[in-house]
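User: These chains co-purify. Model them together.
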Amino acid sequence: MKAHIFVTLKQGVLDPQGSTVQRSLQQMGYAAVQSVRIGKFMEVELAGTDREAAATQVDEMCRKLFVNPNIEEYRFELR
Amino acid sequence: MKAHIFVTLKQGVLDPQGSTVQRSLQQMGYAAVQSVRIGKFMEVELAGTDREAAATQVDEMCRKLFVNPNIEEYRFELR
Amino acid sequence: MPRLSVAVVVFPGSNCDYDCFWAVAQFPQCRVQYVWHKDANPGRFDVIILPGGFSYGDYLRCGAIARFSPVMQAIVEHARQGRPLLGICNGFQILCEAGLLPGALYRNNSLTFICEHVYVRAETTASVFTRACASGQVLNLPIAHGEGQYFADDATLRQLEDGGQIAFRYCARDGAASAQANPNGSRHNIAGIFNAAKNVLGMMPHPERAMDARLGSCDGQLIFKSMLAAVSA
Amino acid sequence: MVTRLPQDPTITPAIIAEHGMTADEYQRACAILGRAPNYTELGIFSVMWSEHCSYKNSRRLLRTFPTTGPRVLIKAGEENAGVLDIGDGWAVAFKVESHNHPSAVEPFQGAATGVGGILRDIFTMGARPVINMNSLRFGRPDTAAVRHLIDGVVGGIAHYGNCMGIPTIGGDVYFDETYETNCLVNAFSLGVMRHEELQRGCATGVGNPVFYVGAAGRDGIHGATFASTELTEESEAKRSSVQVADPFMEKLLLEACLELYKTDFVVGIQDMGAAGLTCSTCETACRGGSGIEIDVAKVPQRERGMVPYEILLSESQERMLVIVRKGCEADVQRIFEKWDLHAEQIGQVTDDGLMRVQWNGVTVAEIPARAIAEDAPLYSPPAERPAYLKTVHAWRLDAVAPPHDLTAVLTTLLAEPTIGSKKMIYRRYDHMVRTGTVVLPGSDAAVFWLKDADKYLALAADCNGRYCYRARNVVCSGGAPLGLTDCLNFGNPLKPEIYWQLTECIAGLVEACNAFATPVTGGNVSLYNESPDGAIDPTPLVVMVGQIACAAHITTQWFKHAGDTIVLLDGRQDDPLHGVGGSEYLRRTHQLKTGTAPVMDLAKEKALQDCCVAAIRQGLLASAHDCAEGGLAVALAECCFTMPSDNVR
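Assistant: Joint model of the four components:
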């Protein structure tokens, strides 16, 4: 079973990488770009097929390791 | 309109970050974890509603700026 | 006079452990030793130092993985008992990740690694680590980091300011904590903070690299002198 | 008896050519084997006899370098890096290597893996790397493409050095059109050790187990200058020539090896760089005068379904081959496990002089180790004086009007990226870790304090594509040259004018080394540096290592006190072009790359340098600076404004 985890900076936390990329896109002529935020995308492969157990484990991994609650938030999908 | 872009390392390209995180998860007792691959996740906000035009622009941005073609591949969704 | 026991913790990827060891070893009253991160009960120490480096390659987030090392339990206990615990650069990041200090360090707003001498202002002398400084003294200390931008939400920042928990602020040579003097975008120019009890200090500048005139500054000695004087008092 | 694997393609002239081998070279391989090679053996011969590994077009010239001297403990070519004595039982191992082509393809990873590779050459000798430097060449930073290349290369070097905790304390960067599409990334490292900690890359002691540390992947197989036809669709699809650097893994490897060296469990050790496992096995067997037998099925693999051909030629990063004393297997395993590293026994030392490779009970390769490691074909292609030199030497000073506004010329030169401050680059390198950098980047030479040995080293890396001499920088910092390592970056050696350039440059270096009694301790040759419109300018980079007797002799380039007297030591010959030939002034103000370079009278130069060091040792000099690019005016300007205290924010 595969878990797709998305970790992004919380609102209110400045995203230096995102704002730099946004500026360069606008300089490259992509005027339609209004904002860019960059985060982490993780693919975790888990043995077993019990979606219940997998969801709890992935949530635990996020809170314990993948996410720093001061500056980040997360969501995940099981495939 | 929002574009969600996923940039990941190509198969066969070493992912030192993924393998280190995988080992640590296993040491933390998450034996079910078989592999971890870590990539970038980007949220780009675009003015306008023409999905056609947006898709071409986002694809161009990926090829020109977001992705290192030597080692990375990408996919995106328009929301 | 009993010798003071100082531990320098080594994580896989630490690289300033050698420099911290050398800095402490210059004080004859100290007995300094390395402690391996897999050692769950390293014993009692008067002072523990978490050195700079790239623990676990700084993968995921700086210090994110190190905080799960077996030695961390003993470090948390050391702090709980009120003994001095100093986290430098990556060590500061580990202390935040472990919840021993509030807030987080993340990517410099310039997006690049910066290694240079900067000035920082000692905000209070009422602490184990800064009692040998004059109030508001400006220290010349080097920084070397890519993820040194300190962030905390407004409520935490207010608590830090009101509780006198800010140890150092980036400033100009004359002591003014200006935006121009801020190398990485840290909120309130914060370069180092204490916990509430002021026995845990996390700082991004490297005092262990400013112990000898040959290296450009001796201001780092003040921090080690303060710490050792407080412990042996 | 060597068998042919079912999926091995039959060897045809086309496949031989694809492996970069000529028909003669193939015949030579058959003669060594006494039979035709199978496919795996062909792969081994082709990578061991590639230009990159065998130096077949330059080895005869390299042999003319002076490589001996009172301080030389390990000579150039003997081991992975040369080693010099610095007194009181201390020694240093140092070397420079190029990673030009990978960096042009993928700047960040190419440069990072270049640093990783040179570090392994140092700690495989038993030394702890304590100093990194680099020499970079780019096109003009006026285009986004070049700026992206610069950012990637500098970022990769910073990433690897900073993560390893090794200070990058100096180097040089040039910007010239000739490097527009062929950048140069030369990485230097120096390590320090006690004499008794020296390690050798040789397999001795029949029966001693051979350990493989790290894991093999399919990366870099194309990197070994050959292609191969479809083996399995899985391998072809996944094979990528870009190697990803893992400095965190190498830091663990470094600390584990240094811990290993404190024991007597290790008989020999070699890092796996170019040609990976193949090169490390046959070279260690050759040096040990022994044979080696390995089973590649036991090699830890990062990808599924790898065949012997791929495992032997993989250039994955961060791997070592360790020859262990029989009976100490468990002890060695324990040390690597402490550092979370995977060490697997894959074979043992034999005495039949053969490199034998097994795979699931079948022998897939059996080659005389000494022959393949040392008997590569050597060539001396024809050399011919380049036509352009006629016009260069015919150039006269009066071909250009003397400048009317000298100040404008000076400011343009100071604004030149090649001459201007490199702070925005070295600021990204941690140049202070290990608390030994007593002269920070920005002066003539970097000076590093080896605290444990209480000794001072002065190091300078430089090469002006038009002419170069490095001893001066070391001397200006108060040091006396000990030895040098070089990286010769040239075009295609099969072009007569390029081979002439290589021959002349080496002859010049030999003459200078002899005049200064400074041995060459090793280095690297990078050929085929070409762009669509021809070869790069000849770029023989030299990194000079010197020793400063005591802290009091450390001298920097900036003026110290108002009222001091300024003296010019001038050893130049009577040069009709007054040093303007091939100068940066001519290049930037008149867009001319011409005029004979100043002729150096080596005896005078030696006298000049001895005079400078003597003055420093008698405490007469407050500062010393060498006149290089931009000449006297730029040198004086630099003496005025490079004082570091201005650098603090």
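The interface with chain B takes residues 105-106, 109, 217-219, 237-240, 242-246, 248-249, 302-303, 316-317, 340 of chain D (CB under 8 Å).
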